[in-house]
Design goal:
The complex is a heterodimer of chains A (159) and B (127). Chain A has helices at 15-29, 67-78, 85-106, and strands at 11-12, 47-55, 59-65, 111-113, 117-120, 130-139, 142-150, 156-157. Chain A is an alpha+beta fold and 159 residues long. Chain A has one domain: Chemotaxis protein chec (3-Layer(aba) Sandwich). In chain A, strands 2, 3, 4, 5, 6 and 7 form a 6-stranded antiparallel beta sheet that branches. A two-stranded parallel ribbon of chain A has the order 1-8. Helix content of chain B is 42%, strand content 22%. Chain B has 5 helices and 7 strands, in the order E-H-E-H-E-H-E-H-E-H-E-E. A 5-stranded parallel beta sheet of chain B has the order 2-1-3-4-5, sandwiched between helices. Classes of the chains: A alpha+beta (159), B alpha/beta (127). Chain B: InterPro entries: CheY-like_superfamily, Sig_transdc_resp-reg_receiver, ST_Response_Regulator. Chain B: The modification 4-aspartylphosphate is found at residue 52.
Chain lengths: 159, 127
């Protein structure tokens, strides 16, 4: 008898689903949801936050925001005018944690969600990772980019 | 009534703290399950714990199993507040002894509604 290999089902989250998640997180904890810009925006990766999903689906969810946006988001989330750099790191990390957790729920299970990693500047992804979903958004005129990378070969979108 | 908020995110602890104090709870905070167990051991024993799932040192699921293994703490109400939204996680948490399960992002109304279902809150204030 010949061994049979069954390729795993690998999917990418649809941009519409991801945008709905971003809207829900923003409208719940920040304020008005980000918008799709009407003209190209210049990326500003002053602050980046990332969570990784490992398991039946493996990939990374990365949020990249300007410093102005990062601080404004933090003030909204904490409802405080005076914030520290540690507050900003924690708030941005929690945002990507919530978005990443919801992305994970769309993907094949079981999988594990990492703790968030937050950095000044850009967070690199492995060279074998493929960007499968990207949202370039504006929030109060500040750029906000959400990128999802898959470590799988097949990048079909979810229905 | 005393609540212990267990989450490694200070942001989330502040948000939940605001909701609970608004309902009349006194609160304490812990950054992971082990810190929470230490807090309970040293008192006061909380009436309610809000528990994140993914945390360093000790995760929320392990915390729930450890609390439920101690008969002295059977009166503590345990509510998961987490990004883990799969049915499998929910079933696992409830089977381990959690009473309720809230998925992030949540509204203050959603937390209040769950606490009303648990009988801890009535008409927007402590029961």
């Amino acid at each position: 008898m010949h061994p049979t290999t069954h390729p795993a089902i690998h999917v990418a989250p649809g941009a519409g689903d991801v945008m709905a998640m971003v809207n829900e997180v923003w409208s719940t904890f920040v304020d008005a949801a980000p918008l799709f810009p009407t003209s190209p925006i210049e990326a500003d990766r002053s602050r980046s936050a990332q969570v990784r999903v490992t398991g039946a689906w493996s990939g990374m969810v990365t949020l990249e925001v300007s410093e102005v946006a990062a601080r404004a988001v933090t003030r909204h989330m904490l409802a405080m005018s005076e914030i520290t750099p540690e507050d900003v790191t924690d708030a941005i990390g929690e945002l990507v944690n919530m978005i990443g957790g919801n992305v994970k729920s769309l993907m094949p299970e079981p999988s594990i969600l990492s703790l968030p990693m937050v950095a000044a500047g850009h967070i690199a992804v492995p060279s074998e990772a493929t960007e499968v979903t990207r949202l370039d958004l504006l929030w109060h005129d500040e750029p906000l980019i959400l990128r999802i990378h898959s470590l799988e070969n097949d990048t079909r979108s979810t229905p | 009534m005393h609540a212990l908020i267990i989450d490694d995110s200070r942001t989330m602890r502040i948000i939940l703290n605001r909701i609970l104090t608004g309902l009349g709870f006194s609160t304490a905070e812990a950054g992971n399950g082990q810190e929470a167990l230490d807090a309970i051991a040293h008192g006061p024993v909380p009436d309610l714990c809000l528990i994140d799932w993914n945390m360093p040192v000790m995760d929320g699921y392990t915390f729930v199993t450890r609390v439920r293994a101690n008969a002295e703490h059977r009166n503590i109400t345990l509510m998961m507040v987490t990004t883990e939204s799969s049915h499998g996680h929910l079933v696992k948490a409830l089977a381990a002894g959690a009473h309720e399960y809230v998925i992030k992002p949540f509204t203050a109304e959603a937390i209040t509604e769950k606490l009303e279902l648990l009988g801890l809150v009535r008409n927007g204030a402590l029961a």
